[in-house]
Task: structure prediction
Amino acid sequence: MHTSIRHDWHTEEVEALFALPFQELIFQAQSVHREYQTPNTIQMSTLLSVKTGACPEDCAYCPQSIRYDTGLNNEALMAVEDVRARAQAAREAGATRFCMGAAWRSPKKRDMEVMVAMISEVRILGMETCATLGMLTREQAQQLRAAGLDYYNHNIDTSPEFYEDIISTRNFQDRLDTLDAVREAGMNVCCGGIVGMGETVRDRARMLQVLANLAQHPESVPINQLVPVPGTPLANRAAIDPFDFIRTIAVARLIMPLAAVRLSAGREQMSDELQALAFLAGANSIFYGEKLLTTGNPDVQHDRQLFSRLGIHTAAGGVGALHT
Result:
């Protein structure tokens, strides 16, 4: 039976998926995955922090906020030639998409000029380009698209209801407005959230429901597991049950069949077995390399060995759906 693509999910429906027996949920998710995606294939992205720290926002999970003492060294915006060198190394290591992250509330005019140059240099290498630079105006989104940016990452982080417990310096609608600007400019949307911040199952369901009910599903949905960083308000948050994390991956796959579901932050803390379960549940994209912005990531060689053990291939380009 062909699974339909929906944009009218009710909260109770999504919660019911979370409540399925674990094996039933995984079976359904893998079935949908095989219907819409290429099985046993992972798309690999590398994320580089091109400007680190001193962010004025107060996101409770983030070591880059200027409000928290996390021992992070603030770094100015990198030189364009240095970013090109890092992108080339990432390509040689197998990454097909290069993401550039900057700790800004929103970029200024001079920042945009440098980012445009960075995007152009990465595109010359033949890689897909992605950026996460904070909130964008419509004009900024158009400028990035004109420079050749393929993807823009702007996570909604959590449910609308739990959002104000995590961030007070911008509201949930600000996030949606940036997503609208990105979509209007013709870029692909990379948007997901973080689990393990103290949210309820309903919050996880609501987060995914918001994404699935957008007029067009995000092309990429990163599911991050909280990495508690000393000095941040969430430093002592208890770890999420691993099965609950996998359930979030599976439900994302079920209600957004065309999206690449990305196993993102927190992978360094995951066992090989847990990562394999995430792939079984429908994850088909990872961040690759030694760091994910400012937190650790499994090393490249270990990832290659894991893929070999699992018989997983890496995609030559962005993971595409089988049915469009």
Summary: Residues 290-297, 317-324 have pLDDT under 50 and may be disordered. Residues 97 and 128 are 4 Å apart (CA to CA). The chain is about 40% helix and 15% strand. Residues 109-124 form the longest helix (16 residues).
